[in-house]
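From the pipeline queue, job 12 of 40. The input is one protein chain; the requested action is below.

Action: predict structure.
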Amino acid sequence: MRNIIVFILTTIFLTNCGESETEYATKWTREIKEKIIEDANQKPDRRFLDTASNQLTLFKGDKKLKYYMLRPEFDSIKKKIISVDTLVSIFYSNDQNFELIRELCPAIERSFEGVRYKGEHLGLAEFRFCDGKLKEQGCRYEGNVGLWKEWDENGNVIKETDNGKTEKLEGLKNIKYER
């Protein structure tokens, strides 16, 4: 009887000590971002600037390293560009399956950072006010899952939405970063 009680208590303890799906998704996202940035920071051998749409893409061979959507500010008197804002940046993995997407202030009233895998947003997604404070945060896997929080400009939680389905985040364990 004593052995059964010890077994049950040990099982309960080990189950409660495991990391949650959300914690795993946060860790997975951080690790994937680091790898994407490392891959994207290779020295490009080719650049393509689309001046009609203000887009710059950096390549190494036939692979994209980075993409930028730009917004130039013109001096109408001197007829030249005086500054350039980056609206969106996308960094690519070597296999081109992963993308680190960043939408940046001030073009829009908030910034965004998240990972896409084969076109699908996965893992932790963060929206921030232009001053860097969190605006919204939650996890994605086939849509929003788990608890999503929204903050006001003073850092107060103003909304919490539990989308459930956190078990979907287990699917991240099957998505490996190949080099």
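Job complete. The radius of gyration is 21 Å.
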